[in-house]
User: Fold these one by one.
Assistant:
Number 1:
Amino acid sequence: MQDLYHELVMAKQAGKKKLAVLIDPDRIRLGKMDQVIDLSVRAGVDYFFIGGSLIVNNQLDECLQAIRDRCDIPMVLFPGDSFQLSYKADAILFLSLISGRNAELLIGKHVITAPYLKMSPLEVIPTGYMLIDGGVPTTVSYISNTSPIPRNKSDIAVCTAVAGEMLGLKCIYMDAGSGAREPISADMIESVSGATDVPLIVGGGIRTPEKAKENIEAGADVLVVGNAFEQDPSLIISIARTIANHNVAVNA
Ligand code: 1GP
């Protein structure tokens, strides 16, 4: 079994950044998925995150199998609900929605899925999930029935992340939500990164290599990109190159 979390912590300590391609099994057409997978392999993408806030079709297993048939890139479940589980993945972000006050998403769903996960071969990565306002109402905000943290309130984000870390969560995921108009600001990323030690995952509305660079320089350890890669898969190469250049520079 791989130890993805340990490897992520080692990378963080070395200042190396990682790229995750988000695949929503419901939204991506199979032809396009092959293209996304092949470009991800070429670009040296670190992870596939698999999930969505609202999954209408039950294509999760097929999606995971289609990826595994083409490559060995680790597949990490990023579940929008407790039924989005599969032994075909390598790991799961066991998300507690710490920016919200919906008890089901803080602990309720976890109780239901714990027995399944205990028996599964999946690596379980306890993750504090923080929704940040991305300038438009997102599916995750609506479905989770929670309000995002205002984008200019870095102090709330910091206190939330620190509380999550103190509770023992092993990663913080700051998300402006898929398709966010405004990605999370570098200021907020820098504040949260400076106040916590666990790996920091950042996603939502990242569309350009410039924004990717800004985020990793601000302290993001893993960048998650979904929509932009679905629309223009060739962007995988340019954003991965930005991260690789950063990683080469920290090694020099
Ligand atoms: C959403 O962080 C992810 O949960 C990725 O967002 O689809 O906007 O890249 P995008």
Number 2:
Amino acid sequence: MEQKRIKVKDLLVSKAYGSEVNVKGWVRTKRGNKQINFVALNDGSTINNIQIVVDVPSFNEDLLKKITTGAAISVQGKLIESAGSGQTVELEAISIDVLGVADPEKYPLQPKKHSLEFLREKAHLRFRTSTFSAVFRIRHAMAFAVHEFFNKKGFFYMHTPLITGSDAEGAGEMFRVTTLDDKNPPLNEDGTINYKEDFFGKETNLTVSGQLEGELGAMALGEIYTFGPTFRAENSNTTRHLAEFWMIEPEMAFYDLKDNMDLAEEFLKYMIKYALDNCMSDLEFLSKRLQEEEKGKKADDRSMELVEKLRFVLANDFVRLTYTEAIDILRNCKPNKKKKFKYVIDGWGADLQSEHERYLVEKEFKKPVILIDYPKEIKSFYMKQNDDGKTVGAMDILFPGIGEIIGGSQREENYDKLVTRMNEMGVPTDEMDWYLDTRRFGSATHSGFGLGFERMMLFVTGMANIRDVIPFPRSPKNAEF
Ligand code: 4AD
Ligand code: MG
């Protein structure tokens, strides 16, 4: 009789030598000779494989031929202490069933190193590689850590809508949602499309942020957070941008900018600590992979070892400074004076590009940086207007290797100031009357921020391209799978 299936992760720490167990998984490699075969089997529960030892003469030759890279098999075997170094147990095969073959002529993944670019085209199978299984196990752990952190703090998880009529960031980077016939849409008298006839009776789009609705929740429940997909139709084909990404947006009543910064720093550190405490074997694998990849680079260009980098961020306070202080540093720094930046900083008011953010973090401070009090012109309408009349209570958190990982602010709670700013920036006050109600009735200081989940994943895994930390990336000209 077949024993109950045990996951590889549990088997590898089992000491029940001599007992009979069953494992199921996918073959990573098979090697050996006419007498003995070694099959490395992985079931996704851990980065590590269980080694199956097969006494070749006692098995059917045809069956053994079907055990190739990618095949799914079920193995009944005896747990034995491993003779080989590096592993503690292996399984002596008693019987093997091939559940699903993987014709080596056709199976795209060979038992060799494939490039990340190649694997991106095979994203439906890349989960089966060590690298991507590690990344996606960590992704799960990070998502779990998000909920654990906020739950412990008494925040409420709020589901904000994905379909909305508003543009929370006011940047106009939205995907339209419509059921109108694109060949024959209903028209107004002036020839424009009549959205009153559309499904929702108005123009709608996929949300760029759950913040505005999140604020409504916070102004009643006190502290809420969202964690869901957000969509941006910005044509940024970079290693840091996706058209569909996941964002965590906490929103807190009675928090000012300082409280907001403290929470964000605590949150980021909590997630990093969670990864160190719960994902070490995956992190170690990714670290080795990274070091392998960087072998050719000069010592100066190599990044800090992954686990060391995570511990370093955990152990140090983030640097906090104002936009104005940052501009002074940037204006006078070498790469700016030598015009090495693509966008040279010539004065106050310039929007910071990722090259500037990374200079501050990687060269100037060598630590995560929280930048506050940005010029109001380069930030969204909802941010708290500072007394200087020029800046707003924004906060961006900049991370090494990433640039901006968090964007947030204290919110403008004064009705008149908010309406004035909305009018100045062309944000429709009539359509957003519901938002303004929080300022009309029981308004109070409140703050929040948004963490790009995939940017956090880039940092924690050390992966270089954001398309490699989300299962099925959506980016300009790419919506495969
Ligand atoms: O700075 P952003 O645009 O801020 C907001 O959306 C606010 N409503 C957040 C808030 O205060 N509640 O975006 C927040 C974060 C960025 O710092 C970045 O990490 C990530 O979201 N992000 C992206 N990640 C991947 N691809 C993109 N296209 C992204 N755009 C923003
Ligand atoms: Mg931002």
Number 3:
Amino acid sequence: MSILVTGGAGYIGSHTVVELLELGKEVVIIDDLSNASSKVIDRIENITGKRPAFYQLDVKDKNALRTVFEKEDIESAIHFAAFKAVGESVQKPGLYYENNLMGILALVEVMLEFDVKKIVFSSSATVYGSFNPSPYKEDMPVGVPTSPYGQTKVMCEQILRDIYVADNNWSISLLRYFNPIGAHESGLIGEDPSGIPNNLMPFIAQVAVGKREFLNIFGDDYDTEDGTCVRDYIHVVDLARGHVKALGKLDQDKQVYTYNLGSGKGTSVLELVNTFVQVTGVEVPYKIAPRRAGDLPVFYANADKALAELNWTTEKSIEDMCRDTWNWQSKNPNGYQG
Ligand code: UFG
């Protein structure tokens, strides 16, 4: 029996596939490689000694999906495949709604046809919106995210909740990620954004490796200790292990489970930059720039529920996240391009 991982060649997907393979699970990856490299499959094999089945296809393509379900013995799915750039989603809302909503709808329709009713969904802390106070708890009402990207996460969660209401044989886990950074300790897989990185850590890493001159810190006049925004950074390997635990939980009881996957601790932009410099010994020149539209000053998780119900908690520190990011970036200055 195999676990279908959509978007399994992507950043979080590939790390999750590694954890699953290392536990002896069978994995089938589908990925259209629109934001990932086929080299990831080789790297996963280098790390684990096992080669996952891989199909290059768009999750929206139901006929292609059906051929995978016909060939493989799929028992559950982890759905990562989606567009994820917040700023781009503001510019191209139609693209984001189409891709992210049609993707999940195609997947659950085909799963239903093949009587596969276990799914873990890649959601985001952005679903808490801008009015809930931190730390975010799973029983807070879902808010109104400031971007179409965030709205697609809210809508996908709702689609899955409604599917469960219609058929209680589904078992569903909604995982709300905080800020994943870091890389596998081998340095063989990591985050490889195309173009100019939107997120903080890949930008820091590209400045450190000399690809960019300096980092812009978006605002130092927030109401926080050092004036820069505070986020809950989580090592991608911890995050991947959270998926494994969440998947296991689906076998216990058929329900819709919702979990925050975060550390429960806030770190400011300046703290992250300073820790990176300390751990790696590499300079990261920065300038203070105006605030970025849509940024919240502070958000972090209450991570108690995942600990209590999944026996999952983060194990890796901010120092580990910086060291492993640098290990990946310095060994792969151009990401998977060589
Ligand atoms: N930042 C900079 N300079 C940069 C990039 C980011 O100062 O070049 C700052 C941002 O202003 C923010 C912090 O670093 O204060 C973190 O920014 P990221 O873009 O790395 O992450 P966000 O918290 O903005 O976004 C994350 C996820 C999104 C998700 C969002 C809300 O990447 O998927 O949290 O949950 F939607």
